[in-house]
Amino acid sequence: MKKKSMLDLHRITAAQFKQAPKMPVVVVLDDVRSEMNVGSVFRTADAFVVERIALCGITAVPPMPEIHKTALGAECSVEWQHYATALEAVQQLRSEGYTICTIEQVHGSVSLERYNMERGRKYAIVLGNEVKGVSQQVVDASDCCIELPQRGTKHSLNIANTAAIVMWQFFEHLML
């Protein structure tokens, strides 16, 4: 086997990305502290052609050097909006017909591999602060809460890792 070159990958430009069909998913970041986590979410959102990202509360917005360091330019291809709060973003997205899926460990959550994603439906995936998670107000306003199954000694994953796993799962069910 031979590694693919950049030419072999046939990557599209940022302008072409903006015109490309998108996965009907908006990623909502609720008070995410780390600019590097934000940049990583942008990069993953680009990879899986996410519609846009809602940056809420204290979540940093481009242009920021630390976002760019991990996004590698994806902050220029993926659309984004800033909201004062994640609750405001969720309420707006619900009015636009999105199903609100919060990624959080709660009583009654659905394990990611058991969540039934339906083609033709629009989703908002809410991810929370590195320490506090998603705010209880947003959990209360959600249509469902999805949890990643874990068996180790830690009870959570880094938000950027969680976002990547969840975006991939939605991409696999909605786009492949």
TrEMBL record:
Residues 25-168 form the tRNA/rRNA methyltransferase SpoU type domain. It comes from the Bacteria. Keywords: Methyltransferase, Transferase. Pfam families: SpoU_methylase (PF00588). InterPro entries: Alpha/beta_knot_MTases, rRNA_MeTrfase_TrmH, SpoU_MeTrfase, tRNA_m1G_MTases_N. CDD domains: SpoU-like. GO terms for molecular function: RNA binding; RNA methyltransferase activity. The keyword Lipid metabolism does not apply. GO terms for biological process: methylation; RNA processing. One of its GO terms (cellular component) is cytosol. This is RNA methyltransferase.
